[in-house]
């Protein structure tokens, strides 16, 4: 070992795997950064004086006498107002040809906010998407994923949520984005004139998959600066958490760890939880709300990634294509926001809860009618009206391209009720029918 300008330099590797190298070193800490033969690496395991480093770009071609230089610190991000409107890579370096950010150095991946400093979430976050705001209302400080098949336009939905959400800062953590997706996000934000409140950390498909593991921590370190230090409402968008979990799997498999369910590492639950548990509502008004995308394999929610995610988060938003209208919708049957009752009828109109329940119940009646039709049974007049209602409901309220305010969503629902049903078929309180009924029956 030699020491140069306070850096510890070693030149003898004990072992090399596909993703890691091991060497004997002292005074090294977990998560510390280093370079191995000029390639960036991070400490992932320490056993006595044997240190294992994960090499982000892989170990191919690294000789046993490679120079290993320890940085003496874990990954960090400079935080300040200069972050706003900028695009960065997984290491927090600018990728938008702008200057480096000056500010306070914060190490990424620290603990989440002390539970004593947390407050029960109670602030509505409107998105303009009726399938969310009407049926699965979001609350500041919530953590919730989109579940979607890979062919669904989930990145477009995320971009639209970013542009519509009434928050102070939006932080995008893009993992495994194609260059087209990256440019899509960049152009959407620029064209909307919203760059001043959006911060993006991006790993593309052309970059090493293992780098994705840094993206959520970078995004959440920036989020904590604005939420905790500046008392701002921050929305964090993470896409795609399945690719994040795949990167975890790559590392654990190459380190010869025994895989758990679906080839995932046994630490998957805690790895996901340390990200999602950063969501918080703070007493002084700051908040971090996390919306993440988890792509599915043919809608399989029993896979280890969505299965573990469901235990950690407070619901899910399920994207699917409606077979009757061809529209991509937020599925009312498989979607759930466990915190919506904290704001429905309190920060929204008094009829919200009953309109929501009735709208979904009638949509379920239409699904039953469709099953009867497919099985050759005769349909009643009510069944036929439900089928017509469902197409309108899907097009005007569930589709992801609907962009209206919550009061308009409620008014639209009343118009559909009045178009297809009688007041007594709704099971809505009479005083609300008297006040909001828009039909002729």
Q: Quickly count the domains.
A: 3
CATH architecture of the largest domain: 3-Layer(aba) Sandwich
Instruction: Write down the Rg.
Output: 25 Å
* Strand-residue proportion: 15-25%
Helix content: 25-40%
Instruction: Please report the first level of CATH classification, the CATH class of the largest domain.
Output: Alpha Beta
Total helices: the number is: 11
Can I get a quick summary?
This protein is an alpha/beta fold. The protein has helices at 130-133, 154-164, 179-191, 215-229, 241-254, 268-276, 304-312, 352-374, 381-398, 406-420, 430-436; strands at residues 2-4, 7-10, 15-16, 20-24, 33-36, 39-47, 50-55, 68-70, 76-79, 87-88, 104-107, 143-148, 169-177, 198-204, 233-239, 280-281, 287-295, 315-321, 328-330, 336-337. Strands 10, 12, 13, 14, 15, 16, 17, 18, 19 and 20 form a ten-stranded mixed β-sheet that branches. An eight-stranded antiparallel β-sheet has the order 1-2-8-5-6-7-4-3, with no helix packed on it. Strands 9-11 form a two-stranded antiparallel ribbon.
Characterize the structure shown.
By secondary structure, the chain is of the alpha/beta class. The protein folds into three domains: about 1-70, Beta Barrel (Elongation Factor Tu (Ef-tu), domain 3); about 75-340, Rossmann fold, CATH 3.40.50; about 350-435, no CATH class. The protein is built from eleven helices and 20 strands. The protein has helices at about 130-135, 155-165, 180-190, 215-230, 240-255, 270-275, 305-310, 350-375, 380-400, 405-420, 430-435; strands at about 1-5, 5-10, 15, 20-25, 35, 40-45, 50-55, 70, 75-80, 85-90, 105, 145-150, 170-175, 200-205, 235-240, 280, 285-295, 315-320, 330, 335. The mean pLDDT is about 90.
